[in-house]
Write a structure and sequence with these properties.
By secondary structure, this protein is an alpha/beta fold. The protein has 25 helices and nine strands. 51% of the residues lie in helices and 8% in strands. The chain binds iron/sulfur cluster (2 copies).
Length: 436
Amino acid sequence: MSETADDPTTGTHDHAFDATRPPSRELIDACVHCGFCLPTCPTYVLWGEEMDSPRGRIVLMKEGLEAGSDLAEMAVHFDRCLGCMACVTACPSGVEYDRLIEATRPQVERNLERSPAERAFRRLMFALFTHPGRLRAATPFLAAGRALGLTGLVGRLQRFPRMRTLARLTPPVPARAAFARLPELTRAQGSRRGRVGLLQGCVQRVFFHDVNTATARVLSAEGFDVFAPRLPRCCGALMLHTGYEPEARDLARATISAFEDCELVAVNAAGCGSAMKEYVNLLADDPEWASRARAFCEKVRDISELLVEVGPAAQRRPVPISLAYHDACHLAHAQGVRAQPRELLRAVPGVELMEPVEWEICCGSAGVYNLLEADAGEQLGQRKAQNLLATGAEAVAAGNPGCALQISTYLQAVDRPLPVYHPVQVLDASINGSRL
Ligand code: SF4
Ligand code: SF4
């Protein structure tokens, strides 16, 4: 039987992968097995297992294209991959592991028989986190649980690591902040330089409304009208990065439609930005949407990219603070954006920027990874917290909501809590005089 060909009479296949966009043989063959990526791979760093390294996973992908391969045996290693893309940054041969794992995950979700409990947990996460309305509705109950000490109790449950992680990660957001709304239009101040769309996000708009507000204020002060529509409710990043392709496609179409008349689209969540730049691959086979996705991807910018690209217009005032800069993987590795946030922060008088060791190693958040693979997420969270504390900085700067939650949780766990700011909040404090 040919490579991954489905049997047209039965619809079955005797390969781990089916014939719908399997990982590309050509991309797989680009790996020369040199191992340069291994020290940057969080799961290899934790366990030292070849099959939990980028090189090992690429070998498994190759096997998955062969007749007689068994998905159940290899899926555990794909599930354990954080999708952090540190291996993409490290690889001297330019292996596109990002495209490989993103072709592999939907194969796993289509072809692996997960247990009913596992399926239900995954569905529950998406049903909650990607619906801001539901997440908002849950915040009074979460606040009550905290007041009664229930979240602390659940947070100590050793036998239920997922519940423990969920309880620990839930931030103490007051209902007032969770229900606050960003205006759909914020007008430019001073000379108008253009119009920018701003993605509100799902988790971001409920748990980090202050980051969205700061983003709109900074863009406005820099001379842009800011269009922040209520829809899409979510850009689909959590689904895309977990292999739930049909759901991710629906949300990608909604996101493209919402911003089609914008010249630029700003994103302040690294995971969302990286997903939105991937729509071009996600919708490549859709005749109606492929060209719209391509045009859309060209307009998407992380907020730090956009601000550096247009240059400063507003005056910066001093913000005396030392900050440990945390590279969010979906910004540094997936989008290659490392210089811009540093440039923006260094341009603020009074900011002292500090660099933690192991910048390239993921904090363990990785979308919903810390909930699905709770033990690994916890170990990586503890490791990152220690590395950030070792800088001696007064606060942490991180451009992704998942990283902010994860880092805060594990700093708190060692009784050394530090504030975690999005870089745009530091800029807002500098330009608009808001409080950090
Ligand atoms: S992915 Fe790149 S760095 Fe890693 S083993 Fe293959 S060629 Fe080497
Ligand atoms: S994406 Fe991250 S976890 Fe996955 S193989 Fe690459 S370095 Fe390892």
